[in-house]
Amino acid sequence: MEPALAHLSPGVLQHDQHLAAETAPPLGMPGFSLVWDENGDLAVSAEAAPSCSSSFTPVARCHEGFPQELHTLKSAATSYLSPHPHWGSREWCQAPGGPIAIGWAQQPCPREGLAPPSCFHPSSWCGRTRRFPSLFAFRVFIIFRAVQSCSRSFLPLCPTLLDLSPLHFSLLGTMPYLLHNSKPRPPPLPQEARATHSSGKGYQELKQECLRSGCLFEDPDFPANNASLFFSEKPPIPFLWKRPGDIVKDPKFILGGATRTDICQGDLGDCWLLAAIASLTLNEKTLARVVPLEQNFGPGYAGIFHFQFWQHNEWLDVVIDDRLPTFKDRLVFVHSAEHNEFWSALLEKAYAKLNGSYEALKGGSTIEAMEDFTGGVGEMYEVKKAPGNFYEILEKALKRSSMVGCSIDTSSAAESEARTPFGLIKGHAYSVTGIDEVSYQGQKVQLIRIRNPWGQVEWNGPWSDNSLEWRLVSPSEQKRLAQTVLDDGEFWMKFEDFTVHFDKVEICNLTPDALEDSTAHKWEVTIHEGSWVRGSTAGGCRNFLDTFWTNPQIKLHLTEKDDGQDDCTFIAALMQKDRRKLRKLGAEMLSIGYSIYESPGGDEHLSKDFFRYHASKARSKTYINLREVSDRFKLPPGDYILVPTTFEPHQEADFCLRIFSEKKAITEDLDENVAIDLPEPPNPTPSPQETEEEKQFRALFEQISGKDMEVAAEELEYVLNAVLKNTKDIKFKKLSLISCRNIISLMDTSGNGKLEFSEFKVFWEKLKKWINIFLRFDFDKSGSMSSYELRSALKAAGYQLNNYLLQLIVLRYSDEQFQIDFDDFLNCLIRLENASLHQPGNEHLRKSDLDARSLLCCHCHDFCSNSCDALIMYTSPGAFVWRKTNAAHLSGLQPCCAQEFNS
What we know:
Elements: E1 5-7, H1 10-22, E2 32-36, E3 42-46, E4 59-60, H2 73-81, E5 99-108, E6 138-146, E7 161-163, E8 169-174, E9 184-185, E10 194-195, H3 203-213, E11 240-242, H4 244-247, H5 271-280, H6 284-290, E12 304-311, E13 314-321, E14 324-327, E15 330-331, H7 343-354, H8 366-374, E16 377-382, H9 390-399, E17 403-407, E18 430-440, E19 443-451, H10 475-480, E20 490-494, H11 495-501, E21 504-509, E22 524-532, H12 545-548, E23 554-558, E24 568-576, E25 592-598, H13 608-613, E26 618-619, E27 628-635, E28 638-646, E29 653-661, E30 665-669, E31 675-676, H14 692-705, E32 710-711, H15 713-724, H16 737-747, E33 755-756, H17 757-777, E34 784-786, H18 790-796, E35 799-800, H19 803-813, E36 819-821, H20 822-837, H21 853-856, E37 871-876, E38 879-884, H22 887-890, E39 897-902
Parallel strand pairs: 10-13
Antiparallel strand pairs: 1-7, 2-3, 3-4, 5-6, 6-8, 9-22, 11-14, 12-13, 14-15, 16-21, 17-18, 17-21, 18-19, 19-20, 22-29, 23-28, 23-30, 24-27, 24-29, 25-26, 25-28, 31-35, 32-33, 34-36, 37-38, 38-39
């Protein structure tokens, strides 16, 4: 048999280094890319490798038939390490010495529209710019090279042949989509904005380096080339990137204050962003946080600027250089009415960098940008369908300094920015700046104040600036409403007329850190982050009852009524992460939503039967493919369960769930505590005579083992398969040799690596119980169970697991269709029991008590080893843990060490 070979030539590495220098990995993500050379070799580039990477030379080779969907450990092992059928279908390979990691590779998950690389053209799984797009898009598998010591290193400049046969390599495993729980977190504070530059340095440090070197800053993370402009096409005309000082003689960052006139749209369809920027200028405190005002082109200028944006529960500090795309010395995109003012153009560039490119900003909702500028939560109302207390909703929103916008729909492109007879502009973004009541002819009249960012063009109907109605209002009332000092473009109108003439209202409710210090009315905010993971927690909506219950479940405690009300008001906002960034890879927004159920009590993950017989108390209005779905609810005090989902099952994404409540609400992730409830093993008592079953086993044992009545793994494999093939209840599939080794590692009390007949009898009782459990959840009698049923099956076997461990197990034991056959189910239970046996007092285990490494890691010689060769595990979107092997551990002397790196 000819082994598969891996070859790393200097040309491959040099080519990849060039790519790494041209485009650095995106913010907050480890930068490892796959790059093909002209010979079809696959190189893994560590663009931002951890400091321990010298021990892990990234080399791998793709053999013919390289699979395009290695999205589980089982399929990776079967397809990648076992191209020849007689190699076997198990993940584990024997290695003569301690393993050393020589490479890891990324594979896209199915149904995400990520095109595989071509063997004939240099490309990457990571997209055209060779960037790692998102944790959800890939799974990673690790290959180990077996060596006698760690002294040998694979130098990048030396061609190296690597034998990928099972004798010399072991597959560590693939990573699940995301291994972290959704936990409540407080809203971030503005001063905690995280530096996002790939160098790990902040704005001030980068600026000082430029000043010391005398060079203007050039941002390698967002280079001045076409890749930063468009991803689906080339620029229609050749753009030149120029600094403001090369465009005008006296550039200014902000000239005379940041106002609406500083925002003029260019040749990019991002008017939604500009409307949000215009609203941003109305709140000085919020503007100063997004656009730090100390920046300028005067003393200390180094060609570097920074802006702060909210993204998925944290504030990010985005650094850019000031090179802007121009054509004939004019800015191509956003620009100011003042030709030498550049804050708005630089803000747009920073936002484009945040989302991957300028093209990524085409099309969107104003509320999306408002949220990114404030960390607030958006609500969108169809005015004609608004609730009866809509006036009160707007009144409370403005008291909390929320950003409120409104607009008039257009029925065709020709109506865009068309003026109505009442002086209003269709398809145009207005700001709502006030709401109040006025005494008029002995009655209270509800008014709303609107601002047109254009200025000049105003409402000319009742209660407009010079209308007759104001003449009948007392001067003191006019003064209170500041009617005589309204800005140009700002006007009052009757709230009843507002509901007739306007169609949409968008409210961005600010988090407490975004409010003025003097503001007394604040929202209470709780934030959860989580994931829908295919095979375990991506259950889809209630239409899919069999999997709906597996979605994340969050418990909401409403304890305090609203002031003067009988109910509790809250806003639930569900946001899917990073979809705009992934447009260049063909990713689209998923349809998302949620349902709210009254809690039956207790803190356990609710089962399928609960949702079968109970209707929801509230739900999102619709499942829709927007970045965020939010709705306002009023429910009586009590406990509720909120279930966030995608519409279709098996769709993976990260999500961020935020609960805004008028009074303090308590939320908790309804993830089950890890617990083990196994029956005590029966005391062996001699029976007067053997059963017929025991007689058959004894005869078979004697035939196979001889007089010592002990069997090794190979002999146990024959015994079990001989017995199980005659079992009518279960659809028989041959047990593997690895399974039998696992059984011996569990049951062998003498430590001789064999199973005695008495030990086998104890195991046989376990096996019969596990067979019955498997049959209960093999609903279609196909010989396999859905991975979504694994939680219930393991609970029936005595193991209550949380999402974290469940994801590991599904990853480790399910196939491409997320089915688990009996052989894998058996291995899973053996692993769990082996892991639990090493825990003192295992009746109530914490998550960390159950050894997750035993569920996933490769051990070179057997499965009962207590050491862990290596484990890579994502713990958050921006961090990973690499449990690396050191020199001592490679010799089998010490357990592994752990290091954590923030990429």
